[in-house]
Amino acid sequence: VSWRTTRISGQQPGTNQQVAVVDLGSNSWRLVVFTYGAGPWWKLTDELYETVRIGAGLASTGRLSDEAMRRGQETLQVFARFCRANRIEPRDVHVVATSAIRDAANGEAFLDQAQRETGLQIEVLDARAEAFFGYVAAVNTTTLDDGVVLDIGGGSMQLTAVRDRRSGPTVSFPLGAVRVTEELLAGDGPAKRKQLARVRSRVEESLEQVDWLAMSGSRLVGIGGAVRNLAAAAQHVDGGVDLGVQGYVITPATLDGLVETLAELPSAERGSVPGIKPGRGDIILASAVVLQTVVAAGGFDGIEATEAGLREGVFLARTLLAESDPLIADVRAAAVRNLAIQYESDLVHVEHVALLSEQMFDSLVSCGLFLPMPGERELLWAAAMLHDVGMAISYDDHHKHSRYLIESAELPGFDPRERALIAQITRYHRKGVPKLGELATVTHADDEALLDRCAVILRLAEHLERGRDQSVSEARLHTNGDGVDLHLKAGGDLTLPRWSVERYGDDEAFERVFHRRLLID
Amino acid sequence: VSWRTTRISGQQPGTNQQVAVVDLGSNSWRLVVFTYGAGPWWKLTDELYETVRIGAGLASTGRLSDEAMRRGQETLQVFARFCRANRIEPRDVHVVATSAIRDAANGEAFLDQAQRETGLQIEVLDARAEAFFGYVAAVNTTTLDDGVVLDIGGGSMQLTAVRDRRSGPTVSFPLGAVRVTEELLAGDGPAKRKQLARVRSRVEESLEQVDWLAMSGSRLVGIGGAVRNLAAAAQHVDGGVDLGVQGYVITPATLDGLVETLAELPSAERGSVPGIKPGRGDIILASAVVLQTVVAAGGFDGIEATEAGLREGVFLARTLLAESDPLIADVRAAAVRNLAIQYESDLVHVEHVALLSEQMFDSLVSCGLFLPMPGERELLWAAAMLHDVGMAISYDDHHKHSRYLIESAELPGFDPRERALIAQITRYHRKGVPKLGELATVTHADDEALLDRCAVILRLAEHLERGRDQSVSEARLHTNGDGVDLHLKAGGDLTLPRWSVERYGDDEAFERVFHRRLLID
After folding, report:
1. Nearest Cβ partner of B82 from A47, A84, A496?
2. Which of A341, A514, A511, A336 is nearest to A423 (CA)?
3. How large a percentage of chain B has pLDDT more than 90?
4. Does the pLDDT of residue A273 top 70, yes or no?
């Protein structure tokens, strides 16, 4: 992994750095602050938002309107003031402008004035660069290896082919939500069938030139506010408990249903569909139809949402990673470590708990005591790494706090089911009979058994490492007649681990789950 | 306030210290770790627990039994090992023994052996010292000025008079839960009326010599596990939402009901009463009857529970405060600051938000726009100080996270109603129409109006301080015809605060709550 370690490790330990990324989109403008530090870890720590609609009217005139430019200037003044107030140095402020400003005949003049008046340096991204940062965001916050990244904004839509995590060919079309709404979906009432058909034809015509789309496999990752809103709406329709849209897959069927629901409503009421933000209601139908057409044309299994977008891409490529090769080697591992570091977990301890958990897991599988579900070992590892994050809140009930913190985190690379399971394994790492409860709405049929197994193994590992001193260097479980022997290798004094396992290791739970008695040798 | 600042400020910033306090009680033994640092802040960060029952059998023989001593030695070995594993230096381990070991004929011999085998230094507290540390815990985690502190353990019960927060006369009686159970409440079945009467007489006889009890006012603060368990049980009976027992008052009527419920059950089933821990079930009735008798004899309004006890008292007196004058000047302020520091809030920012909130609150009261409820201004202050704690989790939804963190904190000095209100004010400091929801079960009739007012004021203050740079140095609200003018004094550039208040300050909410339009001058 190509962390820009020189920059990060050059800091004093404990000091964090901040950068601001400002995204002057065709619909909304947003300033976000990322705080990051050695570890590495990073986190979005502040955000300003304004629906500037700089691209309003552009479709008909080819120019930014005076009214839109006035709103833009005012907003930039506020953003510039915010950076000064928060002592974010100009060199740490990355302002990027996309389609509307790029395409407008008077875009350059607007930027000249804006830069003069605010002192901000503004970079106009060409379509290729815009697509690149979207790709960087997508590939570092999902497990996408091969497929397509779709980025839809107010002005344009980019598609980037991904092969073995590297970016392939890219196309950009003027199919953003504001643009399509103004050109093809005008009118306040319900959308007409003809209007929808015209949007579809426009998209299909554009896609005809994209000969690689249909041979890109089944995965399509979507970024941008429209995708996030539609994913939230899909989650409402599908009916699972809300764990955020990170990794949520909008299926073609649900998307078809959403298009129908939205089209039947007058434009002003589309923002009241659960999941859709009111400020986006009047342009969401355009995005939905464009997405629907791309999914059908490419034969994708659906659209996988990620919370990250252009701004995260700029941050990752420009600040945290090397722009020439901006790939986090293991997205899931990085997400888990990022969270553990943010909550100041004792990394040596949690990594050792993870190691002992994996040793016991592997040895149980070897003796044939159970057949793990796909991905089960990695979920156990993640839960072990994160079991103590709740200690940042309080020692009492820290298992419940860990669940809350994991459910509140995006944990990129994991989907809602996986986040639910990781959260719930940590919830039961100390005591209690594991239950999925309402989380069963996002998990699979056999996941309660997975939860049971992982919680019991993690509980044992935690008590073997009760002194946080790695005094148990290795732990294996082997069948022995009706029982299972716990074999320990000592790296130090075993008084405390033995007491802790005997006192709290919960052999009842072990027997309930694995149908064998736990014998401590 | 007499912080031992020399010791604390001698540290490097960012480095925290740990001490372990071990309490060898007559019923349970517990090791707790406190982590503390400059600020000052402190927090319980680890805990080991064993029901040693070192005092079992003492009532009849006057000696610690061989079996109890064996359990004790084993447990001390584990505790000693834990301290070594966690690199807590011997000078930072405070082990104290109370009634059972103090009173047993062979207590000293037991300790000699224990010290030899474990290397731990054990201090036997006399009844006066035991009462003192209980007093220190109580007076620094409640707002008790005048009244009585009651500390009931397994072996003894201490009462300490408190006048103007200083400790007055102290008495100690062998009325601990294990002792009373063994002597007066033997038997597995439901308790007999005669047995209960005998406990009451024994307590009343003891109290006859306490001539200051009845003239100590109406407040009785209780510490120890029995009080916490009974407070949790009382909360179940009283039916409010569970926000922890810190500051919860067990009323005499609820206590009477609990005694009846417990007495009717066989001893083995008392641990299944909601709120009572199973391991304490067989001795809880004794504590309940003793408390009931003390409340009646002193004419107290009830028993106010605190989570702190002997261990916190030892920590506060020996480590954080000066033992000669171990008083935190303002318990509530210290609790609020402790939490804000733990979650790394920007103190300059939150203190300024608190100041602006108070200025707007005071000016609204001055123009007669509302009459505050008692204590309302302090709740607003606390919410302002804590509004950002949720940022430690994530920027998105940080208002919801702040609520969760405040509800999860003990916040000593505040009762459950006050904690609920502080939490809920922060919950609505950004948007939404404030609602109490299920919290209404612990609040007063007019508290939704209080919440409404404070949330709107805090929202304004937060947006005036959006740049976290104190650019608004003063904010006042004055009636002007049908409206209310917002007068600002500038300490810096007002671009950002004005934009933020106009964009997000929510004048609709202001008008809904104060029935006047908000006018920004």
Report:
1. A496
2. A336
3. 89
4. yes
Please identify which residue in the block is written with the tokens 């409820």. B373
Helix (H), strand (E) at residue B477 = strand B472-480
Tens-digit pLDDT profile for residues B88-135: 999 999 999 998 899 999 999 999 999 999 999 999 999 999 999 999
B126 neighbors B102 (Cβ within 8 angstroms):
yes
Tell me the chain B residues in contact with residue A46 when contact means C-beta distances shorter than 8 Å: 395
* DSSP element (H, E) containing B480: strand B472-480
User: Do A86 and B468 lie within an 8 Å CB cutoff?
Assistant: yes
Assign B148 to helix, strand or coil: strand
Here the tokens at position A292 are 């629907």
Q: Write down the mean pLDDT value for chain A.
A: 93
> CA of A337, closest CA in chain B: separation in Å?
15
Residue A517 in contact with partner chain B when CB distance is under 8 A: no
For chain B, count helices (H), then strands (E): 20, 14
Q: How many Å apart are CA A507 and CA B265, to the nearest integer?
A: 30
Tell me how close the Cα of B361 comes to any Cα of chain A, in angstroms: 26
Q: In A, residues 398-427, which contact B (CB 8 Å cutoff)?
A: 401, 404-405, 408-409
Residues of A in contact with B493 (CB under 8 A): 81, 84-85
Q: B208 in helix, strand or coil?
A: helix
> Closest Cα to residue A7, out of A90, A88, A92?
A92
Catalogue the long-range contacts made by B392-400 (C-beta closer than 8 Å, 24 or more residues apart).
Answer: B392/A392, B392/B343, B392/B344, B393/A405, B393/A408, B394/A43, B394/A44, B394/A408, B394/A409, B395/A43, B395/A44, B395/A45, B395/A46, B395/A47, B396/A44, B396/A47, B397/A408, B399/B426, B399/B427, B399/B428, B399/B429, B399/B430, B399/B431, B400/B427
Task: Work out the burial of residue B212: count CB atoms within 10 Å of its CB; fewer than 13 is exposed, 13-18 middle, 19 or more buried.
Answer: middle
**Res A7 pLDDT > 90:** no
Note whether B78 contacts A: Cβ–Cβ < 8 A. yes
The 10s digit of each residue's pLDDT in B309-343 is 999 999 999 999 977 889 999 999 999 999 999 99
pLDDT band at A12 (very low <50, low <70, confident <90, very high): very low
Of B477, B472, B471, B481, the C-alpha closest to B507 is B477
**What's the length of chain A?**
521
Where residue B212 falls (left for φ over 0; alpha for ψ -120 to 50; beta otherwise) is: alpha
Sheet holding A472-480, edge to edge: A472-480, A483-490, A517-520
Q: Which two tokens stand for residue A1?
A: 């992994």
Which has the closest alpha carbon to A411: A325, A317, A343?
A: A343
- CB-CB contact of A55 with A72 (8 Å): no
Q: For chain B, first and last CA: distance in Å?
A: 42
Q: Tens digits of per-residue pLDDT, B490-513?
A: 999 999 999 999 988 788 999 999
Cβ–Cβ < 8 Å for A158, A170? yes
Contact A467 B45 (CB under 8 A): no
The stretches of A371-446 forming alpha helices (DSSP H) are 376-386, 398-408, 416-427
Angle at B128 between CA B123 and CA B131, to 5 degrees: 95
Residue A209: name the closest of A176, A181, A170 by CA. Answer: A170
Say if CB B342 and CB B37 are below 8 A apart.
no
pLDDT in tens, B186-231: 999 999 999 999 999 999 999 999 999 999 999 999 999 999 999 9
Query: Residue A222: enclosing H or E segment and its boundaries?
Result: strand A220-223
Looking at the complex, does the CB of residue A467 fall below 8 Å from at least one CB of chain B?
A: yes
Query: In degrees, to the nearest 5, what angle opens at C-alpha B102 toward C-alphas B96 and B106?
Result: 115
Which residues lie across from A486 on neighbouring strands?
A477, A520
Q: For an interface test with B, which of A118, A228, A495, A502 has the most B Cβ atoms less than 10 Å from its Cβ?
A: A495
Under the banding of pLDDT at 50, 70 and 90, the label for residue B4 is: very low
